[in-house]
What does this fold into?
Amino acid sequence: MALLLYLAATLLVLVSLAHSYLGERFILMRLFKRDNLPQLFGSSDFTIRTLRFAWHLTSIAWLGFAALLIALASPGFTPATLLHITALTFALHSLLALGLSKGRHWSWILFAVVSVLLVVAAI
It folds into this structure.
């Protein structure tokens, strides 16, 4: 079973990297060149930043799932391990949303709270 979990995790890592790179290069960049994007908060900048972090959140989530599968395949797997990996995944979500939206998209607060709650739950 462990080999299958490692294989699945490897595929998730690969698809995550491909999703971020190819999506940025062939979808997002072309989309952002359009002149008819919605202008939220006075410009299309917020829209572009929101679309960019939302796109890459998917890749981070897949990396988190990969880490969970690797942990599940490990002999020392515990529920606390699951909580720590999930907390880290949401901490990364929070940082990405905070950074790319310059703090204007408040999802970073929710993701940070989820991360902290999971760390506390693991204690």
